[in-house]
Each structure stands twice: as structure tokens, then as C-alpha cells.
Amino acid sequence: MVVARGPNRLAGRRGLVFWVATTLGFFGLLIGVPSLLLAAHATPPLGEMRYLLVHPGQVGNALARRFSDGATTKLVWSIAWLAWAWFVVCVVVDVVSRVRGRIPGRVPGSRHIQSLVAGLVGASLAFGFPSRQMAPLRIQVSAVSAPGPYERPGSTRLESSSTIYVSNPPAGIDVETVPITSTASEAPGRIYVVKPRDTLWSIAEEELGSPLDWRLIAAANYGRRQPDGEELTDDHWIRPGWLLVIPGVVSGDAEVTQVSPSSLIASETSVPNLHTNGASVWVAPAMGIAGLTTLDKPHFESANDIRTQGDFMTSRAPERDRGSPGRHIPVAPIGYGLLGAGIVALLDRMRRAQQRLRPTGLRIALPEGDLVELERGLRIASDPGSAEWIDLSLRLLSVTVRREHLETPVVSAVLLRPNAVEIVLDPSSPLSSPPPPFEFGSDGTSWILTKSGQRIDALRNDLEVVGIDAPLPSLVTLGRDELGIVLVNMERAGSVAISGPETDPLVQAIAVELATAKWSDQIDLVLVGFGEGSEGLERVSHAGSLKAVGAKMERRARERAALLALGGRATNSETRWQDGGDAWDLCLVVCSPTASVEELGALDDLIEVAGDGSLGVAVVCGCDVLSARWRVRAGGGRVSVDGANLRWPSLSSQPVPSNLAEGVAGLVSVAIQTAGVTPDEGPYESLSLRIPERASTFDERPPQLEAPGEPPATSCLDQPSVLVRVLGPVEITGAARMFTRAWAIELIVYLAVHPGGVSNEQWATALWPDKAMAPASLHSTASAARRSLGTSASGEDHLPRSRGRLALGPGVRTDWDAFVELSQSSRPDDWRQALMQIAGRPFDGLRSPDWVVLEGILATVEAGIVDLACRYARHCLKAFDAPGAEWSARQGLRVSPYDERLYRVLMNAADVAGNPAGVESVMAELVHLVADDVEPFDAVHPETLALYRHLSRRSFAARSH
């Protein structure tokens, strides 16, 4: 058993004796010294010190006199009291730093006494110190040189020069290999994996102890190639998943135990079959810093160091004051990123369709209440980049197999690794060499596609790859192992029986992922026992009973067998790989636990029909059925998979709520509403954001022409001291100094669009929904924003100080405020000036953009801009100003590129300009947009179609004459 020694791990009799001795010594110095001094009538010399401070001239007179015995005694007592006070100050500094989870600050001239205090405090409070609770950890291997042969699960290999560091190792540590480009000559450092909403400032604060050291991290990572192919530039924006080298020395007072590799492998806390090849293994306690824990070793011996990271299930390690009273409960991230990516992508597409079909003056429908928190959790964990890698990798393999006439691979599972996508082949199938650019895995039973930024760009732009049908539509996430996320091909299983205490959440997660994943475009999903409410999911249908489903599946299997015999193919999957087409779609039945238990006989019959999945039918049921070919057990946060030639004994299950399917159905049912809602309905009725008047009011107000020399009719032309630009890339102009803290910019933007002021709880929840921030972090963020904004001409802070609530001063405004004032004018020139404020997609560049969507702010801004663009375009068309109308529509499309009213404006502008080809071009642009991006409303609006037909006939009639 590996035992880590340090201030938080004292065990056994000797440890207990040592703890008692150090505790007595600590409290003896802290309480015993003043008690002895008082017992000896040596009171603190407070009166004498106060007298000398008031009359400093008496110091010289006192030193000039001859010292008496009484004066000498009093001087000795005074020195004793001062030394004790100095000791107390060092104790306070050490305790406060430990509570805050940071390295203690240095008191001038106190290095030795602070070392004594650190040892006494650490040892004395080892059994009950209120330190922050850390999330389960996993080892993360950071390879510096080019990755070597890929290892299969259970066979992780480290080079002999590697040094392993493990902070506070729990039982069942997971190992993950993360490559990073580096050289052997680089300075020692450690690797930090960037998480959502991280900044260089926050990383420096957590890892180096001071946010002002962010430039050290930046300097160590300029030009370093990241896994997505990008690199850090002088704009200092970092992305989740990047691997940053943290330079410098990490200090600490913990002891470090060197353990031999054999003892690590033999211990219960080690990773099974971890081959270290003689490498040294260091085990050290964690300091408790969020995200990645700090290792208490003076420095790293090599760049191949292993350090711990918060479990991926929680996305971030919990803050130390997460449970403190009065704080919001952080939103728990849902899934391992792939589940959220599919749902969020679907919701975004549906909302673009809502915006495209929104009536003038209304807003798109948005979720409220618990649905908002559900969507926020999905967005926090969403990993669209990984989902894209899986999807494009499979499509590339399908294109390669079809193009080169290769034998169809039999795929059992796909493993998403940090640096590659690994396709696990069925061991029972004939093995052939992988087609380039795929490579063999280390054990020869898998194919690897290494990730790189250049490769993903090439795949995105390859029309053949993006246009082919996905070959594995039934791929679903079952859990995470030591190398990455495990996705299993349900079609290969034919039938899967899921059992255990956590059956229901897993079955729901499978159903939702199949309904929303990018690679599930060739699947008919039948849900049994899930209720209704998924009309917006075009792949999904509901069945009332398994008996009714069984009859349909039996007929489908017979028809598919006849088609396969006619085409000379062996399986439905092989035909999809080789020929493609919707004739070879897979039909997968997912049965809830309740329905599975109630109809066991019908379930056995359905499993018999599905067979091995070769006829295009597969079944996933929520109970343990003996006839199922694969078995999955879910319980205690773990998932085990046992199937033919495929076995994962212990995967960590992805966290999903118990009512996931119902919640997603609720989100979809809101997103499918295209009729629009009024600004008086939720969530818009609670907005403090200034909005233009109703469009109908403007339509009734005739435009006014500007008289020569007439001054502007609006007050918005008065330039504010500080302007917050949100109608495009976020930018703050007029501030007193440069912003060095990204979260300070986010705070100012949030306050700018909430002019009534917000509580600390409100803005902290919006910026950090997945964590409860320490009060000190909130205060430092607000202080940084206040310093950067500066003061007004009257000397008042642009961000006034207040207790528990923040609001910007009157000298700070947004370009949206100017837009609203100009749009409410009756003069067309003001309308044009308002549209000139638009510089791109609103709120572009925010690091935490979810609140903009979920609070309805983005939808409100889009609606106001599009309505004004249409109004100004109508004015231009009445004046036969076709270029002006086209410019207005294009400005609106910069904000809402899916709104069909703007395309109708473009058609009318082309018609007024006498350009029939322009009408056709606009219609082709809209059809391409609808066909390629918007689901499930993939039909052009009837008004748009009617206008196009009218203009086309008129232009044809004009040409014929």
C-alpha cells in the first residue's frame, strides 16, 4: 500500500504522539507564553509605547539616562511581548492562507519563524483543519516528445526517464495520456489543462499564487502548438483543452515519499498494469488549488511529469466555500461533453429557425425555471470540438473504404483520446492494414487517427467527407476509462441489457444522445415508455408498447433480409459502408426500465428479431434479460460492459440527471415554437435592458425629413465617458487603463446590460455558473474592473463601491443604448446612424456567453436590430434607393443571418434595381442556408416563397416583352 506522508496524513501511534507534542508546543507558544508573562506581572508595555509614539522626542532622553534594574527588566518583558506578537502575526498569515488554499505570503524578516509556524500549524491541525474538500482525482500523463505507439486500455507505458507525481491519490486512479509539443532543453515546468472560463490571470492566481504573474505563463507558451493546432498569441486568449506549461518553482512544506514502481503497482491505489520501466514514483499531498492540484515538490525533475487533475465528471474542482450559506448552488455539468454538444447544437439550430420565422415585434420563445438550469449544465460541459472529431473521423474512414474498395471494418467501439480518435475493431473479424492517414494501435486491434489543427481544417473543407453518410449511427457514450471516453456501437451488439441502480439515467442518456448526436443521421429511433414531447426530434418516434414495436420490427427485418440477399451483401452495416443511402438506415429501439419489466415476453421476442444487428434492427432495454447479447451494469458511478469479444470492467459513468429525457423534451418543445412571444412574457418581462418601442408604433409614425441645420433630435450623440461596445466584438473604450483581467471585462459587460444594478450573487452566477467563487475572488474582480474604468470628470468612480450590489455610474453606456435612442427617432437618418453601430455578431468574444442567451438578452438585441433594419429598408424602397435597402438588410444579417424578412428585403431591392439575377441569387443563398444549417424547419417561409414567385414571374414577363 502506498502511504503518502505530509501534514494532512499522520497515522499510527508515532504519528499520534507527534501530533500531541506539536499541538502542545503550538498552543504553548500561542497561549502559554502570554499566560506566563501575565503570571509574572509582566503586562504588555502598551502605555509606554503609546507615550513614546505621542512624544517621540523622549526616546533620546530615555536612552541618555542610566539603565536601572527595573528598566532592564521592563525592556526584556517588552521584547518578549513583541516577539510573541510577531509569532501571532505569522500564525494568522499562515492560517488565513491555508483556509484560502494558497501559499502563505512572506512577512518581511520572518523566514525562519514562518517555517516554524508552518510546521506547527500543519502538524497541529492535521486531524481537523477545515481545508477544502477535493474532488476525485485522476493521474494525467503529459508526454513531451512526439507520441509513441498507442497503448490499449490496461497497458499504459511510461518512458524510463519519466517521473510520476501523484497528489492525494484515491483508489482507482484513472490515467490519461496528453501529448504536448516541447523540447528537452526547456525549463522545468508542469502542465495545466485549460478548462472552460479559465484565463491566464486566473491560472496564475491559482497556480503561481499571484494573478500578476500571468505574463510568466504567457511567455512560457508563446508559439507552443496546442492539440487543436492553434497557439497562444499576443491577444492572450486561451481555449479549453489547451495544454499550458506553468513555469517556475512550486514551494510547500509537505514531505514527499519516493516509492518504487513495484510497490505502486502492487498497491490498491495504483493503476492496474501501469508499466513504469523503472521510473521513480513520487506521492505527495494536494494543496487544494482548484482545477489542477499543486504538487508539493520544489520542482519537476523532467517535463514528462504526471500531475493530478479534478475529475472530468465535475469539470472543475469544487471551491472551498461551495457550501457556505447564502451562496448559489453551482450548476453541475451534465455528461462528458459529447451529450451536451449534440443537445446544444440542436437547440441552437432550432433557435436560428425561430429567429428566421419570428413575426415582427415579437421575441423567440426561451425556456424558464428548471429548464434554464438544465440547459446551462449542458452548455457548461458541452464539447463540440470532440464531437466534431468523432464525426469527421468516422466519415473520413467511410470515404476511404468506399473510395479504395476496402473490406468493411467491423467496429465495436470508438475511444476518444485527448490526442487521437481510436477505432476499436472486433477481434473476431479479419484484420487488415489501416488506410492512411489511420495507423495501427499498439496491440494491432485498433486504428488511430491523430488529432491536429491542420487535419481538422482539412476535414471540414473536404466536401466528400462532410457530405457522406455517417457509418456508425448507433454510437453512444457509456463512460470513461483511463485513456478517454468510450463509445460503443450498439448496432454491433444487436441487443444490450442494462441493469443496476443507475439504469434509468443511463438509458435516458443513450436515448437522448442517439436523438441528437451529429453522427446519428442514419437512424430511426423508437422510444418505448418515455412519454411524448419530442416533436422537434425528427429521428424519434414513440411507441405505446413493446408488442406493437415487435410486429413492426419483424416486418422490417424480413424486408431488410430480402434486400441484402438481392444485393449480395451480408449485413446492413456493411451495405451502409459500401453503398450508402437511406435504404440502409438502422432502426434502434430503446425501452425504458418500466416498460422493459412490464413486457418481458415481448422484449425477448424483440431481441430475437434483432439478432446480431445484421438486419438493421437493434434493441437497448432497461432490465437484465438473459437473451441479450451484451450486458451493461450501472451503479455507484461506475459502468461495466460485457459483450462478445468486448469487455470494459470498470468505466466512470457520465453524470446525468434522473429526468434528463423529460428535461430535453421540455427544451425542444419550447424551441419548436415559431409563433413568437411578446416582450411582456418570460423571460423577457424581467429584463432591465432598455428596448425599443413596439414596431407597430414606429409604423404608425411617418418618417420626418431633416431640415437644413436642424440639430440632432436625440441625446444619444453625447459621447459617454466610457463606451461598452456589444453590437459586435466586445470592446470597452474610454477606460482609464488597460484591462489585465479578462473577468473584469465580463463583469463590466454584464453590468452594462443590467443598468438597474445586480447583486453579487447574480453576476457571480452568470459569470461562473459552475462554481461558487470565494468572496475574495469576487472582490478582486470588482476592484480590478473599478481600477480599469477609472473615475468620471467629477471624481466619482465609474463603478461605485456598494455593499452586496453593483451598478455602473451614468458615465458608462453601451452602443446598444445609443442604438435604442436613435431607433426611436422618427428621422430615417437616425435609423441609418443606429444601424451603423453594428460591427458584427452581438457580444462576440465573451468568455462566458451563456447568460446572454438564457436571459433573453441576445434575442432581444437581435429582434430590435432586425426590426429597425426592415423599417429603414422599407423607407429606402419607397424612395427607390435600392443600394440603401440592400445595405440595411446586410447590416441586419450581420446580427441575425437566418431572418427571412431580411432576405425578402434583398429580393425587393434587387427588383427595384432592375436586377432579376439578384433575385435568383438571394433565393439561392437562402435555400442553401436553410438546407445546410437549419433543422428541423427546413422549408422556406410561405411569404418568402410567394414573393420570389411573384418577382420571378414579373421579371420573366418583362424580359419576354
Tags for this entry?
13% strand; alpha/beta; disordered N terminus; 8-stranded mixed sheet; single chain; 961 residues; globular; 27 strands
Rg from Cα: 33 Å
* Residues in helix, %: 40-55%
Derived structural class: alpha/beta
Overall geometry comes to globular
CATH topology of the largest domain: Rossmann fold
CATH class of the largest domain: Alpha Beta
**How large is the count of helical segments?**
32
Ordered list of secondary-structure elements with their pairings:
Blueprint: H1 12-39, H2 46-54, H3 58-64, H4 69-100, H5 111-124, E1 137-143, E2 163-167, E3 175-179, E4 189-193, H6 200-207, H7 214-221, E5 243-247, E6 257-259, H8 261-266, E7 280-284, E8 306-310, H9 338-357, H10 370-381, H11 384-403, E9 411-416, E10 420-425, E11 439-440, E12 446-450, H12 453-460, H13 463-467, E13 475-480, E14 485-489, H14 490-493, E15 495-499, H15 503-516, E16 523-528, E17 540-543, H16 546-567, H17 572-578, E18 586-591, H18 593-598, H19 600-610, E19 617-621, E20 630-635, E21 638-643, E22 646-652, H20 660-671, H21 695-700, E23 722-725, E24 731-733, H22 742-752, E25 758-759, H23 760-767, H24 775-789, E26 805-806, E27 812-814, H25 815-823, H26 828-835, H27 850-854, H28 857-878, H29 882-895, H30 900-912, H31 916-933, H32 942-960
Parallel strand pairs: 1-3, 2-7, 15-19, 15-20, 16-17, 16-18, 18-19, 23-27
Antiparallel strand pairs: 1-8, 4-5, 6-7, 9-10, 9-14, 10-12, 11-12, 13-14, 20-21, 21-22, 23-24, 25-26
Helix pairs in contact: 1-4, 1-5, 4-5, 6-7, 9-10, 9-15, 9-20, 10-20, 16-19, 22-24, 25-26, 25-28, 26-28, 28-29, 28-30, 29-30, 30-31, 30-32, 31-32
